Amino acid sequence: MPALLANRSGGGVMDRIKLTIDNKEVETDRGKTILEAARENGIRIPTLCYYKKLLPIGSCRICIVEVEGYANPIASCTTPALEGMKVITQSDRLFMMRQNYLKFLLIHHPLDCPICDAGGECDLQNIVFEHKIEAVDLAAVGPKKRLASYATPLIKYFENRCVLCLRCIHACREVSGRGVLDLDQKGIEAHMTPVNTADCISCGECLSVCPVGALTESVSRIKSRVWQVQRTQTTCPHCGFGCRFSLDVQGGRYATDLITNVDDKPNSGSLCVMGRFGYDFVNHDARIKRPLARTSEGTGEVSPSDAVAIAEKALRSLDTEGKGVGFLISARASNEEIYLIKELAGKFKNAALATPAFYHTGKVLDLYKLMGLSYAYEYDRLLSCDVILVAGANLLSNNHVLGNKVREAVKLNGAKVVLLDPSSTPLSRIAQSHLRAIPGQDARLLNAISARITDENACSPEAKDVEGFVHFSRILESFNQTPNAQEAGVSLEELERACKLIKDAKHLGVIFGSGITQSEESLAALLNLSLLKNAHKDGVVAPIARQSNAVGAAAILEKIIAPEELLGREDLAGLFIFQDDPFHYLNRGIVERALAGKEFLLVGDALPTAVMPGADLVIPTGTFAEKQGTSIAGDGYVRERRAAMNGSPMGFDFLRELLVRFGGPKYESVDQVKQKIQESGVLSAGGDGEGCLTPLHQGAAGKSFYMASLEPTLSFKRPYTLILRDLFLNHCFLDKDAYSRGIATVYTGTNYPITTDRLFISAADAEKIGVREGDGVTITSEEGSVKKAVSIKQGLRSGVLEYLLFQDRRDVLKLSSSSQKLIDVSVEKG
Ligand code: SF4
Ligand code: SF4
Ligand code: SF4
Ligand code: FES
């Protein structure tokens, strides 16, 4: 590994060296650059192309320093610091040379700062100011404002403002793993250009690293200058990774921009398309602003206090009559809202709580608890893993930023990647092993790998002390690789390769998604394997939390049932749906029947949803931009959501007032509820000072192996298995034009072109059925059939069909009345 790379890994023991910078003796790790050594010791060297997260680029030469023994100044960002080196960072010569480099840049850069989005927070502006450049000898060439085409409609590219630092090109390759951008031409003609636009996933990484206003976002309808806005750091509302960013709000009312900072954990400045561009829904005209109540005369606005009175009266009368009330709670609501609903439900004689977090995170938390696995871990622990197993998860559609962490571990630490998924994923490009198992057969392969590890005595010493080890090892003795590889549909060589990598791993990282949690035996097999390798302590065992507070919802509510069970219960005459829309993920018939049978339907949300038309009372609950509260991210740590916009959404106030009316305590503030949650034992103080999940605290030792059925129990009779993949877009933005303009249609990439509604099929199956790209097929299950046009996907195993549940594509849910996302189907042309 090159020294400049090695120093970034954070792993390994570095020896220290001494050098002199600006006549001051300093120490640093061998392998660090002069720039890094200077910064560590509080000495500032100006830079332009250097970016902390990227490998050194060395394109601008602004960071030049004088080094004793060298005739000419050298770039400090690309030169390793050496023992005994003598460095000068500031001199008249350096100042003039930097001035000249900047003047050269300005010849090509239009001075349109007054109309540039980056004005006021532009690195070039700052550095030109610092170098006292008052005029350039030559004017900028070319048209004043040349807007060149770019890879994605979400980003504008002002080519003339580009200073050719190359950060965007490197970020796209190194961080996002794409390679959409490149340098074209040479010398004066050189320019950055998109070369492979079909591969762009609109992550905006390039935009976030651009030091000038060459790349700017084109989402917000309202633009503002940095001095006109209030900037509030908060947490992304869209998925469970818990990315941090700051929201710019103008006049307390309009979200105008979103800023990331490379130093903010856990995302280090990266976001996915939804996080980066999916914030402008908070400005949408369709926002629900006042409560709406249905009376015999129709539906009309009511005051917040009347809304509370209406809800109290209806719910109390149901309770008095001995009728039950169901609570269906979003896995995106804040911890504090969820806690209030739980307390409220506790006031009813017959109440049931459900959340979609049940499907994935709820099952995971239950099993982690049972097996005594630690839950709270830091994503960055992946960076010290030498092997990373990604099972049943597509990190592009499920969690792009977690995918970035895997790529970073590969880049910095040479980590090897093993994939377990029937389809190609964005990580296929860098994987050393890809087990394309028949859907539902993962447990066979995972147990075969575990059998090999115990057989060769390659498990960690700690695993032998875990309860059930001897019993588990005995059961595994019968797990022969050959028949299991055959049954799972992978070759023995493929299984052998994966076995060897995992067996030899010193620090195993395990990431898994709903492809695994679909079946209990797959989940058990994966967690048992993790225990054998002590991955929960030496590495990471990380489930993907899809919704932004799935962990909080599953942990706080504790006794939850599946949403379809709640909706199917006939004893529940009242239903309170809080920030959720079951039409999005359940068979339409189930939801319609449930809603039609309710005597009182109360819905709370920020934007209109499909369950609202039948509601007796609708309350506006606000978005992440107005809410104060917390959520628990997929790593088990608490993240703050801070109110960036004015206006008090009534969600929290409505809940606490209703709770008081039913005899509950009166909480004065969100913080008081947060305190109560901590006292209840769900949360405890965590590593980052913000708290983390208590029952499964970091460092918990494995308690026991879990003996589920070792054989897969899902059985399929029809020739194809349809995998429904969820894109975790926020439910209430799917039916309306309320989502960030363009997001829904630009979330593209060679692996997931979702601009058109297509069923993915392998080339072999397309040939067998006799269809070509775009042809129609009929998919039939035990419960129904739908027609779809096909798209041929490379890397998808034969016998498997893949479909993205997204926007108005929920007609496929009629193929199954359960929440199972693996459906037994047959397919025919036409
Ligand atoms: S948006 Fe992401 S994938 Fe597209 S060009 Fe920029 S960095 Fe590359
Ligand atoms: S577009 Fe921005 S990040 Fe890319 S090379 Fe130009 S100035 Fe650098
Ligand atoms: S990965 Fe998740 S938390 Fe991060 S920006 Fe995307 S949706 Fe938001
Ligand atoms: S910052 Fe070192 S060459 Fe650009």
State the distance separating the first and last CA atoms: 54 Å
Number of strands: 35
Task: Name the shape in a single word.
Answer: globular
Output the radius of gyration.
28 Å
* Approximate strand percentage: 15-25%
> What is the CATH topology classification name of the largest domain?
Rossmann fold
Helix percentage? 25-40%
- On the 0 to 100 scale, the average pLDDT is 87
Could you say how many structural domains there are in total? 5
Structural class: alpha/beta
Please list the strands of the largest sheet in the order they lie side by side. Answer: 15-14-25-24-23-16-17
What small molecules does this complex bind?
Answer: iron/sulfur cluster, FE2/S2 (inorganic) cluster
Spans of at least 5 consecutive residues whose pLDDT stays below 50 are 1-12, 732-736, 745-754
Report on this structure.
The chain has 830 residues and is an alpha/beta fold. It has five domains: 3-90, Roll (Ubiquitin-like (UB roll)); 135-283, Alpha-Beta Plaits (2-Layer Sandwich); 292-360 and 549-693, Rossmann fold (3-Layer(aba) Sandwich), CATH 3.40.50.740; 367-543, Dimethylsulfoxide Reductase, domain 2, CATH 3.40.228.10; 720-829, Barwin-like endoglucanases, CATH 2.40.40.20. The chain is 27% helix and 20% strand. The chain contains 25 helices and 35 strands. The strands form nine sheets. Strands 15-14-25-24-23-16-17 form a seven-stranded mixed β-sheet. α12 (442-455) crosses α15 (492-504) and α12 (442-455) packs parallel to α17 (520-532). The longest helix has 17 residues, at 92-108. The radius of gyration is 28 Å and the shape is globular. The two termini are 54 Å apart. 55% of the residues are buried. The model is unreliable at 1-12, 732-736 and 745-754 (pLDDT under 50). Bound molecules: iron/sulfur cluster (SF4) (3 copies) and FE2/S2 (inorganic) cluster. One iron/sulfur cluster (SF4) binds at residues 151-152, 171-172, 176, 178, 180-181, 200-206.
